[in-house]
Design a protein that fits this description.
Number of helices: 4
Distance between the termini: 25 Å
Structural class: alpha+beta
Oligomer: single chain
Low-confidence stretches: 1-35
Shape: globular
Mean pLDDT: 81
Helix content: 10-25%
Strand content: 35-45%
Number of strands: 12
Largest sheet: 8 strands, antiparallel
Order of helices and strands: HHEEEEEHEEEEEEHE
């Protein structure tokens, strides 16, 4: 399994498109959208670790930022071809968005029902679209998967300490 370098990961998560933010926010807030029988599959070198049905066209991955020690969240929207695009970044602390992610726009206060305090779209000039996303699911980062209508899934509890990397793929539900 490929192990992304910290610089590459930081660059990738800073990417995205502004156009997807409104659709993703609306779908996340309403719980509507639908992906037509798809699941988000979590796997590593040992195989499939979990499969979560996608009842909407959005999902999010949160983690504890190791520099700021606070929680940040990357929100994705599923595209018709099964890939997914970074649509919004959210955090409990403004510095994570402004300094760590270095987003071009000003973060705004999140809505009253949001898990995080602040939200911002990623840089529209550098869209981040994934078919497979490899992430470190460590005890320190405590990465957690959020899928509307499903309980949160602690990815860091699924991966072993000796090989904490997991991949997220969208698959058609059999």
């Amino acid at each position: 399994m490929r192990r992304p370098l910290a610089v590459v990961v930081a660059a990738l998560v800073c990417l995205g498109t502004l156009g997807a933010v409104s659709a993703a926010a609306l779908a996340a807030a309403s719980g509507h959208g639908g992906t037509g029988g798809r699941s988000l599959v979590v796997r590593n070198d040992d195989g499939e670790l979990a499969r979560v049905p996608l009842g909407a066209d959005t999902f999010a991955v949160s983690y504890r930022n190791s520099i700021y020690g606070t929680v940040a969240e990357e929100r994705y929207v599923v595209q018709a071809d099964g890939s997914y695009r970074l649509a919004e970044i959210a955090a409990d602390q403004l510095a994570v968005l402004e300094e760590y992610y270095g987003v071009p726009g000003a973060p705004v206060a999140a809505g009253p029902n949001d898990r995080r305090n602040f939200v911002v779209p990623p840089a529209p000039s550098r869209p981040a679209v994934f078919e497979t996303l490899s992430i470190a699911a460590t005890d320190l980062g405590q990465r957690t998967l959020y899928v509307p209508g499903e309980p949160p899934l602690d990815l860091w509890r699924l991966a072993g300490d000796d090989d904490p990397y997991v991949e997220l793929d969208i698959k058609e539900t059999p």
